[in-house]
Amino acid sequence: MKSSKLMFAVLATLIQIPSLAYADDPPAPLKGVSMRDVRMIPVQSGGRIKPFDEFARELILTFTGNRSYGNYDPSELMISMMVKPQDWSNVELIRVGNEDTRRQLLLDPNRKFFTPNELSKNHAFLQYADTMGPGSEGNQVTAGGVSAVTAAMDPRAEEMKRVVDRMTRFQALIGGQLWMTTPPKDGNPESPWAPLARGMEEPSQTSNAVYSMLKNYLDKDADAFNKSAAQTRALIEGATPQFDQHKSELVAEAYYNRLRPFFQALWFYLIAGILWMFAAPPEQKKVSFVRLMAKSLTFVALALHIVGFSLRCYVAGRPPVTNMYESIIWVSLGVMVFALIIYMRTHQRILISTAALLSGLALFAADSAPLLMDPTIRPLVPVLRSNYWLTIHVLTITASYAAFMLAMGISNITLFQFLKQARASAGEARTAISQKIATLNQLNYRAIMFGTVLIAAGTILGGIWADYSWGRFWGWDPKEVWALITLLVYIAILHGRYAGWVGTFAFPLWTVICFSSVIMAWYGVNFVLGVGLHSYGFSSGGQSTMTAFVVLQLIYCLYVAYQVKGLKGKPQPPATV
Amino acid sequence: MISFLEKVWKTLISVKFAVVVIVCLAISLAVATVLESKYDTKTAQFVVYRSWWFYALLSSFGLLILAVAISRIPWKKKHIPFLMAHFGILMILIGSAITAFKGVDGNLRIAEGEVNSSVELDDHVLVFKRGDNVTSTEFPWMPAFEAEKFKTRQYPEFGVEVTKFVPDSELKIDFRPTSDSADKPTPAIQLRIMGAPMGGSPELWLWAGDASWSTQKMGPARFLIRREDQKDLAALPSEGPEARLDFIVGKKGDLRFEATSVRGEKRTGKIVMPTPPPTGGPAEAVLVDPEWRMPIKIAVRKFIPNASNNMAYVPVKAAAKGMNGGPVPAIQLHVMGDNSGSAHSSMWLGLGDRADLTTATGENVSVGYFPRRLVLPYALRLKKFEMKHNPGTMDPSAYSSHVQVVDQFQKTAQDLDTLPEHEISMNEPLKHGGYTFYQASYIPDFPRAVTTVLSVNYDPGRALKYLGSLLLVLGSILLYLSKLSQSKKKVATV
């Protein structure tokens, strides 16, 4: 409600801003200014205290769909926008992602970014913004205390809503309404802070300091700016309630943002995964350069991954497993850990190679779609505030996804070996491949056993948690049901294998196909079905990518099955595994 | 015969049969979730989760697990992990069956400061009342595709029948001209309020036929319709300072208004509706300016000198959720033997509604369509509802109900405040008298005070489910370890 009121005020004044509908180049960053202090200024935003750097990155993500903008330091970009609002209003900054939405607004359908001025003078847009005012949220209050009405919205309407939000925030930022500069005088950590613009009516030490900092930036006085930035930081830090508690978290968060641990780790993983394929087998005693490289790159990637994971835990005060982005981080770490555990017993390099590639690709997917998978650290909704059960239940379930993902990776390679075998001519080569296949199937079996035990335990733990907080052990909620379906299909594979129905070839084939069930439980329930009590994790988007993945996997399976059929009648490899 | 039984037994204990049942289970569950996404939870429950064939599937699953476990007799030490996992599943299944048939899962709504002991359950009932005789019968819900084939259900004892069922409906109110009771006409008027401070231009109906319809309050303004001879309505006491706009209908069906400002200033005027009556937007309507020193004008969109109230529940899409909590199931009642087609012979009841009817034999019967209720042997009183927000936002971070357990009929108002208080918050339930109370959600400021929604639960199958879970998890871990040691030697190097 608050923000929509603000929006109306802002949009009303907007119409009067005189400007021409053209796009300018963005103002250049100022030379000689240091953002070291600005970055660290504590800001109250999104229900917690965060460093200005994070505040800036979230806003850039809101405006543009990316976490950074050109060669600008995110913090400097915010300062520049507040100091030169007119200039920035003519920069192609605001993302209008959906082509249909652009057509609806009579905008150039081939452009993705538009200037705030273009949008604020667009009558169609203003009308939409008006209809999306109060009341559009609905008043349903669910167990999580969140509105569940938005689940299955039309993508056009959804994008329109986002564009309205982008514009509202942009106007609020340049109007000094967004940056909370003045902590409450009563020292209560739950009281709201006052925005910068309030300093006009009720000047405070902190808002005055910010004003002089902004003025120095406008005057292009780098030295004065750096000095006033340090002063502002000290003042706001001093006024922040319970600053001592937040201090190290703020440092950790700013460091986490600059390090981008997962983004770095993913490249190391991908390179290491490829190198492992070419690394010499361990029987060769001589030191292989490739093997050494692969080993050290894997180590660096894993270290970055673990450091990033720990930093995120520390900043959020909880394990990062509450949305898609966080679960991908955890699952890709799990894939590596399971691969290493099985590797320690079996010394199969193919495991590390597969796992590194899978982790790298998963992290890449998470990093490449920040609009779809929000990397922002957010406070928990009420129903999740029971750290103990949340941690155990969600970590166990998602760990099982990791095991199944590893199994899927291994099985894809097994199928590839079958393909090679079908094309190999000599009997000897075929026997060699058969042996490889037998080993791979053994690894796959272990991964699936791992996953099955974990998903059984995780589903039951979920039942215990649900019993504890909702009062029922099992309620046929779609998320529960898909976890159960996943458990059932893998149990079917294991029993089918035991009964002799699922042979050497069918085993990897079904493993790959059944991974669709994991995708459904993990992604589909929240993004495709969009119903049920797990409404705090709902979102939309990415359906085409996920469908493409599943369809490609099925086509691959069918193709391999078709090719391998030629093997029938020829001597089969012994199915003793 | 023996050989047939042997065959059945062989099938039951074969792993292949188990795989078939597991796959069938998985497929039906997947179908159920798609149904739930496409329609709603109730449809998924009707078609799958609570259908006889799904119970049969689960039972055969349990049966085959039992058979497989028995077939391993004599049990040896190496069977322990296998038996643990399989008996674990069996115990979870039995525990769930006990919960499903003997357990209680409902909602208890208590407004702040009030006492309630009646728990709303998931299923619906028809409650008949004739004299002192009160009977309730189950009236099961069914999805739209079943409701299309709905056959009239007769309740000859009470002289009524249910002719239609709509699983998801919204109440639609419509006033139409009538010639009933011409000596005491019941006029209706449709207003649109222009320039209301809360934005938008809300519309409302006033109808003199019913006390709850004849007056409506909006902020500090009260709107009222009455015939000249309805003196009681003219003397309606005000609730604090209010501005009032009375629409008064004379004997000849003429319309005038009487506006009173908060300060008591009066203004009157005549309203002449154009002929033909306005049909479209407010431009065609007659504007009334009550001069309340607020920029409010009232457009009279429709005036019916003698109107009847036609309420009907019209079907809506199941997924659509309106501001008033979404669609409700509704039934159409019909008085048996009365084929006059008048408003008294058939009527709509939404879930939670009650109607008084006169049967063909002249008896008065009251029929209600309600969720089934369970009355607890004690009551809960909501002393205070507390909500916390994430710093600087309106997002709730936690909410909790401070409740007191009241032994019914034993406490006076003064005693209530001294009763011990219990706090129920998310993940922190209250256990009392076999039932457990969980914080489920809340309804802000409805109808007057904030209302907490507690989920009430009694689960006799809990212990069995927990024990089964423990066995299943431990058993599968042991199974995993034993398979690992068996296969250790077989692994070769790629």
Characterise this structure.
The complex is a heterodimer of chains A (577) and B (494). In chain A, helix 11 packs antiparallel against helix 12 (222-239). Chain A has 3 domains: 2-134 and 153-243, no CATH class; 260-379; 385-577. Chain A is mostly helical. Chain A is elongated, with a radius of gyration of 27 Å. In chain A, the strands form 3 sheets. Chain A has a two-stranded antiparallel ribbon with strand order 1-2. In chain A, 65% of the residues lie in helices and 3% in strands. Chain A is built from 22 helices and 6 strands. The termini of chain A are far apart. Chain B folds into 3 domains: 2-103 and 462-490, no CATH class; 106-119 and 374-458, no CATH class; 181-305. In chain B, strands 2, 3, 18, 19, 20 and 21 form a 6-stranded antiparallel beta sheet that branches. In chain B, strands 4, 5, 15, 16 and 17 form a 5-stranded antiparallel beta sheet that branches. A 5-stranded mixed beta sheet of chain B has the order 8-9-10-11-12. Chain B has 10 helices and 24 strands. In chain B, a hairpin with an 8-residue loop joins strand 6 and strand 7. Chain B is α+β, with helices and mostly antiparallel strands and 494 residues long. At the A-B interface, helix 19, helix 20 and helix 21 of A face helix 2, helix 3, strand 20, strand 23 and strand 24 of B.
Report the sheet with the most strands of chain B, covering strand number, pairing sense and barrel closure: 6 strands, antiparallel
Low-confidence stretches of chain B: 280-284, 320-324
Q: Count the DSSP helices of chain B.
A: 10
Strand content of chain B: 35-45%
Q: Give the largest chain-chain interface (CB within 8 Å).
A: A-B, 92 and 74 residues
Number of strands of chain B: 24
Q: What is the distance, rounded to the nearest whole angstrom, between the alpha carbons of the first and last residues of chain A?
A: 63 Å
The coarse overall form of chain B would be elongated
Strand content of chain A: under 5%
| Order of secondary-structure elements of chain A | HHEEHHHEHEHHHEEHHHHHHHHHHHHH
Count of helical stretches of chain A: 22
Please give the radius of gyration of chain B in angstroms: 31 Å
Q: How large, in whole angstroms, is the Cα Rg of chain A? A: 27 Å
Domain module count of chain A: 3
Count of domains of chain B = 3
